[in-house]
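Sequence in, structure out. First:
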Amino acid sequence: MKDFRDLNVWQNGMQLFDDVVKDVECFPRSEIAKVITNQILRSVSSITANIAEGYGRRKGKEFEHYLYIARGSANETMDWYEKIKRLGFLSEEKYRERQRACETIRAMLSAMITNIEQK
């Protein structure tokens, strides 16, 4: 692979980012929605940003460290979607789609971490 953009996990993360941006555009214009929008955009952005930064370091333990951070950001994004669902900002179907996407990304990151740890 020549570039972090070749990683399937990064591509999935960018698709999730695109979907989250579309979701938050439909949120109400309340103060709480603004806070949540800010936080969820930060967490979902952090997934791909940390994959890219870690890939640039290309050293086992350093890359692994950034993958752990990216996995934590995927968990944080899942947490925000739980809150969004409880507030009624999103349909159950969209919620399940985003949760599945986060779980897939998290599983991919876990597999990459395990692979680095076994080397």
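Second:
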Amino acid sequence: MATKEQIQADLKEALRNRDTVRRDALRLLITAIKNAEIEKGGELDEPELNALLQKQAKQRRDSIADFERAGRADLVAGERAELEVIESYLPRQMDEADIRRAARDQIAAVGASGPADIGKVMGPLMSQLRGRADGATVQRIVRELLTQAGSESRPG
């Protein structure tokens, strides 16, 4: 699990090793952490730090997609390198099969029967998966499962 102290220690190591890509990515992370701590008025706890890391990773993924659409391979490479550094501090992400299993369990637990029930499923499921699964992926899978459930329950 990532800690602010670990990130700062890794920055010192990157400086010693003259690893400019890692150094720059870690400096950006430390700045984001400090800004979040100022906004909060205190230290970030582990879930808050993980949420911040997730947000930073999402920003890089969005930038990569934007730069790819614009044909800016030079900028894509830099964003991918930063994303790789950020992801090294995140908990292991669940694969789609694990997300699908958790979504099915949650759908059964709340008795959801169609796409209109997505809100009943997403809230509890995201609190269960927070930090371990991308929200957009979870929503896509839940919507897919609920659409299947809704079409199966309709008389044909």
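Remark: The two ends are 50 Å apart (CA to CA).
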